[in-house]
Amino acid sequence: KEEESKNEDTILNQELTVVGVSQLGSESMWRSANTVSIKETFCKENGYFLLFDNARQKQENQIKAIRSFISQRVDYIVFSPITEEGWETVLQEAKDAGIPVILMDRNVKVADESLYTTWVGSDFTEEGRKAGEWLAEHLAGIKFNDEDVNIVVLQGTKGSSAMLGRSAGFHEVASQYPNWKILEEVNGDFTTVKGKEEMAQLLKKHENIDVLVSQNDDMTFGALEAIREAEKETGVKRDIIIISFDATRTALEKVKAGTINADVECNPLLGDEIEEVIQRIENDAPVEKAYYIEEKVFTQKNVMSVIKDRIY
Ligand code: GYE
């Protein structure tokens, strides 16, 4: 105990900036890379003291963590909200305490936007659109013409920005092609285990799946296993076009090998960007309400340009 309070004193003496980070969980490779990025950025060498909490997929744990950051009077709160709804009360508490809140990756849905300072992440709707646009181009190339295109979708965590945006963007493009039939959209929770389970069910229910849109790489890995096992059981080779999201290194290897057709990038390395925002606030510089990260689509054609430098 004494040792601990001595540590706290040193921290205060050094005038480190205290940042409380509420991470939503560790469901995916994307999330692990995001956590590493945060921990590397907000370290003592860079002038920060990090309080980090992993909410293990529970909103109530995130709310608890944020309340504890408020009572410890941290300088900044950074958090990645698991779903968009239900944050008003706790954000109001942070605002009343005068602590700036920076949303990381996923967004919140609140009537009063002054409840948070800014948001740093990806344009998920644009990612969904890119998936649809890639598919349209690809189908034109293989002369699918007016035949029905049977699509199944593995969605991420229900009510999360990533799931809502990627679905909306893809639907936007799909609605322009009357022959695209979305057979089913199911929740795979952004995990490999659930992705496999759900894909196995989809393969049992639908004989003629042409396209799988899987809203993250981890679910895609599970789905690929399910497809392989179904082939073993039935002996039927299924030629399913696979579109994934995140573009982690392991997935890019599969793009290179031709197992995944297209992977829409989503960058988890948000530490530096968030640090820049904090420095702007520290220096009373103007802060925008949203900072978007630039992202690409990878296919066999361009995957080599990125694969060797991919650290996640
Ligand atoms: O795509 C997925 C993760 O919110 C962008 O969450 C993030 C998503 C990411 O679990 O892999």
Mind sketching the topology for me?
Elements: H1 2-14, E1 17-23, H2 29-41, E2 48-54, H3 59-71, E3 76-79, H4 88-96, E4 101-104, E5 118-121, H5 124-141, E6 149-155, H6 161-174, E7 180-187, H7 192-205, E8 211-214, H8 217-234, E9 241-246, H9 249-257, E10 262-265, H10 271-282, E11 290-292, E12 297-298, H11 304-307
Parallel strand pairs: 1-2, 1-3, 3-4, 4-5, 5-11, 6-7, 6-8, 8-9, 9-10
Antiparallel strand pairs: 10-12
Helix pairs in contact: 5-6, 7-8
Beta-D-fucofuranose binds at residues 27-28, 30-31, 105-106, 156, 162, 190, 216, 218, 245-246, 266.
Task: Explain the overall architecture.
- Residues 40-263 form the Periplasmic binding protein domain.
- Keywords: Signal.
- InterPro entries: SBP_2_dom.
- It comes from Faecalicatena faecalis.
- This protein has 312 residues and is an alpha/beta fold.
- 44% of the residues lie in helices and 19% in strands.
- It contains 11 helices and 12 strands.
- The chain has helices at residues 2-14, 29-41, 59-71, 88-96, 124-141, 161-174, 192-205, 217-234, 249-257, 271-282, 304-307; strands at 17-23, 48-54, 76-79, 101-104, 118-121, 149-155, 180-187, 211-214, 241-246, 262-265, 290-292, 297-298.
- Strands 2-1-3-4-5-11 form a 6-stranded parallel beta sheet, with helices on both faces.
- Strand 9 (241-246), helix 9 and strand 10 form a beta-alpha-beta unit.
- The longest helix is centred in the middle third of the chain and has 18 residues, at 124-141.
- It is elongated, with a radius of gyration of 21 Å.
- The model has no long low-confidence stretch (mean pLDDT 94).
- The structure holds beta-D-fucofuranose.
